Amino acid sequence: MKRSSCARAAIILIACSALAAHAADYAGPLFDAHLHYNEEAWNGQAGPHPLPDVLARMQRNGVRAIVANSRPNDGTQALAASPLTRQAGVTVVPFVRLYRNRADYDNWFRDESIYTMVQTELARGTEAGPFKGIGEFHLYDSTNANGPVAKKLMALAEEKNLVVLAHVDDAAIDLLMANTPSRGQKMRLVWAHTGIGGAPVARVDQLFAKYPLLMGELSYRPGLTCDNGKLCPEWRELLLKYPARFMIGSDTWVNQRWQYYDELMKGYRAWLGELPPQAARRIGWDNAAGLYGVTIK
Ligand SMILES: [Zn+2]
After folding, report:
1. Ligand 1 mean position, distance from CA 28 (Å)
2. What is the percent of the chain with per-residue pLDDT over 70, rounded to a whole number?
């Protein structure tokens, strides 16, 4: 081979291996398992992100189902009731939010009126069917997992087979689980962000091993992705160790998250595409769909 053709062959080889290294993005359905439709997004009717706007964002990103919760619960009720939601091909899994306003964030775990509100909402249900879970709730101090209302809500959730979406640290996972009749063995808890404080991978692994129904939602998870949005090696390993235990979510807690909804979902599709197709499909759709009994219509 002449020198010039050698060089050309080498360039082609490099180009080919670069192509092979860049896996195709995950193209299947997405289940947004952590979505808020708070009052500042739509303001009852108007607001910057009315129903047609948020539904269009879901639709163009292939989001076919959502866990909806909102402060107050009216946003969830609106998503559940609107014919526009069905027209967009989006299934709503409604959750009862524990917050009527921002003051409730720091007090729900000891406020009896929150317990009453949850029971009223559960009895009322939504036009998309009964509430399937409670949350998202926050515990900024993990010892508040032992607050009287937190204890009652965890027992209620397990008894009624409700899923709990909890934004807590790893210590609070143990405390919340201890407050259920099965001591966490039958508790369907989804750990929002799988520990936003960055609990080490080994600790996540330990908790997953300890609680068979514990699952992790991955928005804002520190250390999940490294350069260029690619999965960090230790997280790739953990996802492949527990492909049936993770799910993705937008966490539209402020309006800015709605503005970047496309980018968020594209980011998920990119790193899901690095995984074997079956694992990508499980994390992108199957795990949440299985947990909430959702099928694509
Ligand atoms: Zn959230």
Report:
1. 24
2. 92
Rounded Cα–Cα distance for residues 135 and 151 (Å): 14
In the block, residue with structure tokens 């790193």: 271
CB 94 within 8 A of CB 129: yes
Q: Taking the complete model, does pTM exceed 0.85, yes or no? A: yes
Asked if pLDDT for residue 138 goes beyond 80, the answer is yes
Distance 9 CA to ligand 1 centre (A): 51
Closest CA to 166 of 125, 196, 143: 196
Exposure of 46 by Cβ count < 10 A (0-12 exposed, 13-18 middle, 19+ buried)? exposed
Q: In this predicted model, what pLDDT tens digit does every residue of 75-87 receive, in sequence order?
A: 999 999 999 999 9
CA of 57 to the centre of ligand 1 (A): 18
Task: Say which residues have a Cβ less than 8 Å from residue 235's Cβ, sequence separation at least 6.
Answer: 201, 221, 223, 224, 225
CB 220 within 8 A of CB 195: no
